[in-house]
Specification:
alpha+beta, two-stranded antiparallel ribbon
């Protein structure tokens, strides 16, 4: 599940507009529940560290990652752990693979999603300033569902967090030395 949230609404607007976008679509009550819980966790942890709010919540069933790409704008992604059914003493027991999802990889996915959104649409604040919050909601509803559907969480790994492997040019002697070492090890 993915949610985009704005935390600077007036109290009159908060109940209807604090959740800008969500995927997959869900009821307003579920949206507000998850966004409210995330806001509460972030605000609570800010009492201990102003510059490092809560960014990850891991439970037995899911991992929730929160990312603030711009001040007062939050992306929240909640991903369920894969289920495994085991038979223990004649009974089926459902367990969850809690090590399947890496928080740093999920944070990288959110950062990359924001960077891609910003490349095509501009910053979140600029969309609200130029147009309206409804325009931001519409732009996010158009962009994020296809983007998130294209992700294959089973193939995400450290290279996703590092944004791939970067090759840099090296001097001829350094290349030959490295190649020689690799061949000797093999």
């Amino acid at each position: 599940r993915f949610f985009g949230s704005i935390t600077t609404w007036t109290e009159d607007d908060r109940s209807t507009r604090s959740c800008c976008s969500s995927f997959p679509t869900t009821t307003q009550g579920n949206k507000l529940s998850l966004v409210g819980l995330s806001e509460a966790l972030v605000n609570f942890t800010r009492t201990f560290s102003r510059d490092r709010p809560c960014e990850t919540v891991r439970t037995m069933k899911q991992c929730q990652v929160m990312f603030e790409p711009e001040p007062d704008y939050w992306f929240i992604m909640s991903v369920d752990h894969p289920q495994c059914t085991k038979v223990v003493k004649g009974e089926e027991v459902v367990t969850y693979d809690e090590l399947f999802l890496n928080e740093s990889v999920l944070h990288a996915v959110l950062r990359h999603a924001y960077d891609t959104f910003r490349f095509f649409n501009g910053t979140l604040a600029s969309i609200v300033e130029r147009h309206s919050p409804a325009s931001l909601r519409e732009a996010m509803d158009v962009f994020f569902p296809p983007y998130l559907l294209a992700l294959d969480f089973s193939s995400l790994d450290l290279f996703e967090a590092l944004d791939g492997i970067r090759f840099v040019p090296v001097a001829r002697d350094a290349f030959l030395h490295a190649t020689h070492c690799v061949h000797r090890i093999e």
